[in-house]
């Protein structure tokens, strides 16, 4: 749930930004948030492959606030291949009546993902990537959009504005080596907070993880990330201080 984005090695991050592997969230998360911690700097250009994974594994400051209690339409688990036009997707209605499309992220969504990150406020980027990051590097964008769907998953929320498609939210997870646990993250554009989008994105993510046999979902987040705290509690996650970093907390959901 990390409303963040990517961790660092405590466990070597690779989950937050773009769930690439379990444990990637710790302050430099990129895909999975738990295994390793990637340093926030990894979000810049010229990062190494490992750093890129860590950054991708971070969760993004899931700034989405708890959404409505209305049940979400469940879809079948995605196949372990790159998403296509035939992949499952959903049209959801937010609290304000806006309709959004939620579907798996694709490699060709690189421009959408870059624009989404750049529109986030500095505080939202800090929560998302567990560190400051200005311009997302090409390596980071690739890690966030070109996933190994046999192990990882990411959903984006899209709307149409002024004749253009715009990404306003994303949720993702990366699994541990044994496939029994995953580190997740969720981020919502600042202007779309408190509309239930974070909850919708996370519920679809949880459904897929459960259908794939994942037993435990975790999220590494900044202790001062209150929107994530509320969203995690709403979805049934437990919360505890990170023993390796007093500035962070670990949210856990048994599936």
Secondary structure elements and pairings:
Layout: E1 25-26, E2 33-37, H1 49-56, E3 90-93, E4 99-104, H2 110-119, H3 122-129, H4 138-145, E5 153-161, E6 164-175, E7 181-188, H5 197-211, E8 216-222, H6 226-235, E9 238-242, E10 245-254
Parallel strand pairs: 1-2, 7-8
Antiparallel strand pairs: 3-4, 4-5, 5-6, 6-7, 8-10, 9-10
Helix pairs in contact: 1-4, 2-4
Instruction: Please give the radius of gyration in angstroms.
Output: 15 Å
Helix content: 10-25%
Relative strand content: 25-35%
CATH superfamily: Gcn5-related N-acetyltransferase (GNAT)
Helix count?
Answer: 6
Q: Structurally, how many domains make up the residues?
A: 1
- Averaged pLDDT: 76
Helix/strand/pairing class, anyone?
alpha+beta
Question: Which features would summarize this protein structure in a list?
Answer:
255 residues; alpha+beta; Aminopeptidase; eight-stranded mixed beta sheet; two-stranded parallel sheet; globular; disordered N terminus
């Amino acid at each position: 749930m990390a409303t963040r984005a990517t961790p660092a090695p405590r466990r070597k991050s690779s989950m937050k930004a773009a769930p690439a592997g379990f444990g990637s969230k710790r302050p430099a998360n990129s895909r999975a948030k738990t295994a390793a911690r990637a340093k926030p700097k990894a979000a810049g250009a010229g990062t190494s492959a490992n750093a890129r994974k860590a950054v991708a594994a971070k969760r993004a400051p899931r700034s989405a606030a708890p959404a409505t209690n209305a049940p979400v339409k469940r879809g079948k688990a995605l196949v372990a291949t790159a998403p296509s036009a035939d992949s499952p997707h959903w049209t959801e209605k937010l609290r304000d009546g806006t309709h959004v499309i939620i579907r798996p992220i694709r490699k060709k969504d690189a421009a959408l993902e870059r624009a989404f990150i750049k529109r986030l406020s500095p505080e939202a980027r800090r929560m998302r990537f567990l560190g400051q990051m200005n311009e997302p590097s090409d390596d980071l964008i690739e890690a966030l959009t070109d996933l190994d769907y046999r192990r990882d998953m990411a959903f984006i929320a899209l709307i149409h504005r002024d004749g253009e498609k715009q990404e306003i939210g994303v949720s993702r997870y990366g699994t541990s080596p044994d496939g029994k646990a995953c580190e997740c993250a969720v981020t919502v554009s600042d202007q779309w907070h408190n509309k239930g989008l974070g909850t919708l994105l996370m519920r679809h993510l949880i459904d897929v993880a459960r259908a794939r046999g994942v037993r435990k979902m975790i999220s590494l987040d900044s202790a001062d990330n209150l929107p994530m705290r509320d969203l995690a509690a709403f979805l049934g996650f437990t919360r505890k201080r990170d023993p390796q970093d007093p500035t962070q907390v670990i949210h856990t959901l048994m599936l």
